[in-house]
Amino acid sequence: MEHSKFSLIAAWTVGAGLAGYSETVILTGFCDRATAMGLPLANALVIIDTLHPIYEGHACRWERGQKETSLVEYGRTNEGEGAEAWRTSPFYRLLESGKSFMRWRLTEEVDAEYPTLAKSRAAGMADYLCIINRFAPEGIIGEMDCVYSGWTTDRSEGFSDSEIAALNSLLPFLALAMKSASLTRMTKTLMETYLGRDAGRLVLEGRIARGVADQIDAALWFSDLRGTPRSPLPQPPSKSSRCSTTMPIRRFRPFTSKAATC
User: Domains in the chain and their CATH numbers?
Assistant: First the structure.
């Protein structure tokens, strides 16, 4: 890839992160520009963990020719089927190796070891790149310690060495932009979960100065419990009541496993 083309993609990606674009918009713009400038991408997947009371993280998937890039939130991978599926994924293999990059030419031999890559080969893919961009210790928040990405091509000869080098050089820009977008999403979620929707919104708007008050609509409930019978045996609070006192009750979208997004 020519240096001028590389610079254009890098500059757009950094600008998208600074502008506060969503993860799906960032990945779409990155992949569309990369393919227009010669990288033979067919599919791309970016995964990043987060801090969330229900989900472990989310994954963005781009597919050439599709109108929209999808975002899927996945559950915990430290137990059960999710853990087993994660341990058979290329990302887990890369993480355990300590490397930052691995490549698989998609063949029958690879199918037996990695079910997700078998699906890619069945869909006509020929080559797969698995890359991890790790954060420094000071930049880690909870389980958010890196950005995983997977890249496939359906070109029979696969990726060339120069194309792999170009992609590896561009990915730090993409990882930084995706981290920025994910941190914004995570902050909004934590504010809403632990402070409530309205209070969280006010905090994020900067309403945090001491001594500043607002008029709000409120209702006061007074109950006269004199003369009401008491339970013969004190009962400990139920699990549901304990949860309701620590965070608002919210509805979350159904999620998949981390490995299922690979």
Answer: 3-192+253-261 (3.30.450.40)
